[in-house]
Design goal:
By secondary structure, the protein is an alpha+beta fold. The chain has 12 helices and 14 strands. A 5-stranded antiparallel β-sheet has the order 9-4-6-5-13. Strands 1-3-2-14 form a 4-stranded mixed β-sheet, with helices on one face. The two termini are 16 Å apart.
Length: 379
């Protein structure tokens, strides 16, 4: 029988690289201020749930995986993550898995383009007041690009489209917009792929997007807002089109994956924090750096406002990439998440032996772990 060993609870701090410079995180700021924040602010139930999930991420309360490291002669416990939309660690893991699965299911030998469909700031508040409007934005973006490609090819074609709804900008303000990956062309009724080439009529796209989205939003907006928008933006609404074409499926999946499941701000962008206020930076589209200082309560409000409601789907698949593709990608992500991936010792980095996974926070007796390990080896 193996000798009982020291049980190591693996945490983010153990796995993180040592650094001489201070490290600030969204989680740290919430840990210090969340209880005080609740005393003076009303929050949605989903906001409370997502914050509490993040604050207990990897604390072992959800259970985790047990391993044995032969080299160190120690048992290692790897706690489950929280999968909160505020957690940068779990968000990265999810997007990496999503991108990996997606890359295997994108069309082969087909160029793709990245577009961003935006709306002017005069409309932002209506999306904040009515969170169901995000689907109108996404559906209309697909309608617009489908019409554009059909006009280019003088026939009805169905492109493959993947959209990610983003409710925030780089400065963490509320700024609803849609990131889109679309095939350069689409399929006709006979199932043949018709390429649209590298040409996208920008001016027509801007005007078409403006007309389509204002028409779709008209019944949801106060009287006069649509007319005011047309008057202020005679050249249409902004649609950013990335200049280069994307041919690599892995590169494409990784690129769009950045927008799938990450918090409004990365920890690395927080450069100062003193318990009452924080300072962070962001880069605009011209790579110019901007700095912003916020009181912690204002920062918390800015971050949690972007948490979607429970059943909101912020990633949608249209046209050639809809339905069956979506189901296969989602099921693959779920099955991959269920696997125990971290099987290398945090101390010696040698491969460990998986024992079992627990569903609670009560650690098993060391002797019981040893018995389980021996039983697993005999089975």
């Amino acid at each position: 029988m193996l000798n009982p060993c020291v049980i190591i609870q693996v945490t983010q701090e153990i796995l993180a690289k040592e650094s001489n410079k201070p490290f600030y995180s969204v989680k740290l700021i919430f840990e210090d201020n969340w209880e005080d924040y609740l005393k003076t602010h009303e929050v949605r139930e989903i906001e409370r749930i997502e914050v509490e999930k993040m604050l207990t991420c990897k604390d072992g309360s959800r259970g985790g995986y047990w391993y044995y490291c032969k080299n160190c002669d120690e048992y290692v416990f790897v706690p489950f993550g929280c999968n909160s939309r505020l957690c940068s660690c779990c968000g990265k893991r999810y997007t990496d898995q999503w991108a990996s699965m997606l890359s295997e299911r994108l069309g082969k030998n087909i160029f793709h383009r990245h577009l961003v469909f935006g709306i002017p700031d005069m409309l932002w508040k209506y999306f904040q007041d009515d969170r169901t409007l995000y689907k109108v934005l996404m559906d209309t973006a697909y309608k617009t690009i489908k019409e554009t490609f059909s006009k280019i090819n003088h026939k009805d074609i169905v492109p493959g489209v993947i959209e990610v709804y983003h409710p925030f900008g780089r400065d963490v303000k509320h700024q609803p917009h849609v990131h889109m990956i679309v095939t350069e062309g689409g399929f006709d009724k006979e199932g043949n792929f018709i390429s649209s080439g590298n040409y996208i009529p920008f001016n027509a796209l801007h005007k078409n997007w403006e007309c389509n989205i204002l028409r779709a939003l008209k019944k949801h907006l106060p009287r006069g807002v649509v007319e005011m928008a047309y008057a202020r933006y005679p050249n249409g609404f902004c649609v950013y089109v990335r200049k280069d074409r994307i041919s690599s499926r892995k590169g494409l999946a990784k690129y769009i994956g950045r927008y799938v499941r990450h918090p409004a701000i990365a920890n690395t962008r927080i450069i100062a924090y003193n318990g009452e206020a924080l300072k962070f930076y962001w880069k605009d589209h011209e790579d110019k750096i901007h700095y912003k200082i916020m009181l912690v309560h204002d920062f918390i409000s800015a971050i949690i406002q972007h948490i979607p409601e429970k059943n909101q789907k912020l990633v949608r698949y249209y046209g050639a990439y809809s339905r069956k593709k979506k189901k296969s990608i989602k099921s693959s992500i779920i099955s991959t998440f269920s696997e125990h991936k971290r099987d290398y010792c945090p101390k010696c980095h040698e491969k460990m032996e998986f024992i079992y996974y627990s569903s609670g926070d009560k650690p098993p007796d060391k002797n019981r772990l040893t018995v389980w390990l021996e039983m697993k080896r005999l089975s």
